[in-house]
Amino acid sequence: MQQFLEIISKPDNIPIILLLVGAIFFSWLAWTKARRNDALEVPVEAALDDKVQVWPYLVRVEFLATIAVMAILVFWSVFLDAPLEEAANRALTPNPSKAPWYFLGLQELLVYFDPWIAGVVLPTLIIVGLMAIPYVDINPRGNGYYTFKERKFSILVFSFGFLVLWVSLIVLGTFMRGPGWNFFWPWERWDPHYVAVLTNVDLSELLFNIPTRLPDNSINPVAMLFGAVVVLGYYSIGPVYWMMKRKDDLMQKLGLVRYAIVSFLLLTMGGVVIKIILRLAPMAFGLNPVKYVWVTPWFNI
Amino acid sequence: MALMEKFRKTEFYKSIFRHSYQDTQRNRALQIVDNVFLHLHPVRVPRHATNIGFTWGMGGITFLLFLVLTITGVILMFYYRPTAQYAYEDMKYLMNDVPFGPLMRNMHRWAAHAMVLTVMLHMFRVFLTGSYKPPRQFNWVVGVILLVLTLLLSFSGYLLPWDQLAIWAVTVGTNMARATPLLGHEGPFGPELGMRINNDVRFVLLGGTEVGPPTLLRFYVGHCIFLPLIAVIFMAVHFWRVRKDGGISGPESKKNF
Amino acid sequence: MADETIDTPQPDAPAAAGGSTPKISPTPLPRKPKQDRPPEQDPGIWRMNRRNLLSVAGWMGFLGFIVVSTVGALRYMFPRVLFEPPTKFKAGFPQDYVVGEVSEKFKDEKRVWIVREKDGFYALIAICTHLGCTPRWLPGDNKFKCPCHGSGFYKTGVNFEGPAPRPLERAMISLADDGQLEIDRSIKFLYEKNEWGRPGSFLPFTG
Ligand code: HEM
Ligand code: FES
Q1: Kindly report the CA angle at A266 between A262 and A270, in degrees rounded to 5?
Q2: Which of B55, B113, B151 to mutate to test the interface with A (most CBs of A within 10 A)?
Q3: Class assignment of domain C88-204?
Q4: Which of C109, C126, C147 is nearest residue A179 as measured by Cβ atoms?
Q5: How many domains does chain B have?
Q6: What predicted TM-score, i.e. pTM, was given to this entire model?
Q7: What is the largest CA-CA distance in chain B?
């Protein structure tokens, strides 16, 4: 526990504390504003509909905010030094060795996915997915004010992505991943010699005892087929749902292209969660963690 | 005081300040319109746009931090040499012997962290108020580009101290590029397309086959010149679009005037 | 051709009639410059004809210039010569190594472990196949453990735990003329490509 406090108070970890506090505070703020607007017929901002002059009413807010930010920043910089460790040494990897804090969520995903997924495909999909939001969210309500009632689905999905998959993975990566990238509870000491015995198995091995590799180390076609069925089957939930619901009003308005994009992105987001569970859940039952769902000669998922 | 009055009447003064400072509606408007910096703003805004509870001020604070980073960054450049031989020494020198060196480096470092934080919160707010909806779709896209640029700026700066923290974070980070599908020499279908350790995307990023002196130089140029330039261009578009898309978003009924 | 008629100068009737010098026979007005063609009539550069051939050629040249400059700029970013340490080095005499031991002598400088087994030598490259950290040799647990994301490798280099997708790489090892071990890091042998049986991946030696 004492060590946990030390880690929390490391200067380089302050942004993460701020992130955590900020995410909670602003979620709460937005939530209260949304509830208030939802209770009223008209959003508060619409009721106060007059204009004010920028000079002085906006400029003074900006001026005060600038002073406040600068004061905090100078104070912060006077009392806490930016870290400077030993000179670079290619032969000695510090243990644990961490990416900058804002990438720790992605670094955490490296535990569950091969680098080409965690390091390249998922970040690309996050960026592309974010850019796609305005074009796939066709709900015209909730434009320019806080509300929850009028856009429940989009707010829930985005908040799950931001608060759970982004912020909490960063927090977890910073405070609970110790030497060897092992997981430590806050009350545990970071023991550099701690050895977690993790023997990986693949999904086909865990479920049906079908080995993914043949004795001569080549890929077992049966396991490869099994993986393909699982992964492609998972992604076909999207088309199947479309076939069932295509007469729906919402589906009609969304159109096939938007629907395809949304379902692909949502299934991928869900897939990340599922893969994490596949890795962690078997250990709770004393089984080996799942490494891959689909193994091929070219890539593994 | 009288002297000041006299000065106000000179041609010189009037050539700089085009209107009096008396508090009138007209002068308030002129204050914005006649000032190259302030005229980024409209003359009048909806009342809720001045409410920090609505915008959280996060976009503006992000921009402020960017300015702080530009200034402190330029100051650091006076003492920092981007070579493997000197970079770490210069950092030590800045932290121990340069007057106000630690303050400048600390401010640069903490402002960089803070900017990543505020840009994320800004995005969160824009999402929660639904401000990406028509007509602001494209400005959201510009915003995502700015988010990526902010992360890249921060990440490229991370290497510059050339200490253990720096090279290992960057080693791990850039090694992911090995695994880029098609373009990395260990990525799916990369080797099949002729990618090798000395011709794939990672090689261009590093300027070599491992994180070394050429990498430091590449990241330095990217961090100090290329990325800030691109970011400034996109910020200009971003701010311009905020105005062109009708100012800060608000509920429908405000559009009446 | 439709656009032909547009460029033909039209006699400017009102000007000729109401002009101050009616006696002079109306000189044809100067040919209207090309730009004056109404935009709706502009054939665009994609409809190639006699008139816009030059314009098309110009745009093609412009495009070609942009493409070539971009390719050139990209090529500029791929250096031809690298100033990196030599990959080939001598590693002392085989007798200096203890059977069963993983030698870390060249780990710092060259990032290679030299492993001596009963029947010979192999050289493992000390770069984690996950994301390139330097793993540690833990003699007590008889394994390599990577500090970055926890990958574990047996002494042979084969991965068995954590995120590493494949075993450590082996480097070329041979005996030089002077009897010393010689290692070339630029020649690698990958287990997953079944290359560990090839000559150079293992140096048979008993003595
Ligand atoms: C370098 C990064 C950025 C800077 C300096 C910046 C700056 C600003 C500023 C000053 C505003 C005015 C309103 C406010 O302060 O909230 C604004 C509005 C806006 N920003 Fe950003 N921003 C950045 C990144 C982003 C990102 C990452 C997004 C979203 C992905 C985004 C999307 C928007 C949108 C849609 C608006 C209009 C909001 C409205 O009208 O209510 N921006 N930005
Ligand atoms: S770099 Fe070795 S486990 Fe990730």
Answers
A1: 170
A2: B113
A3: mainly beta
A4: C147
A5: 1
A6: 0.87
A7: 83
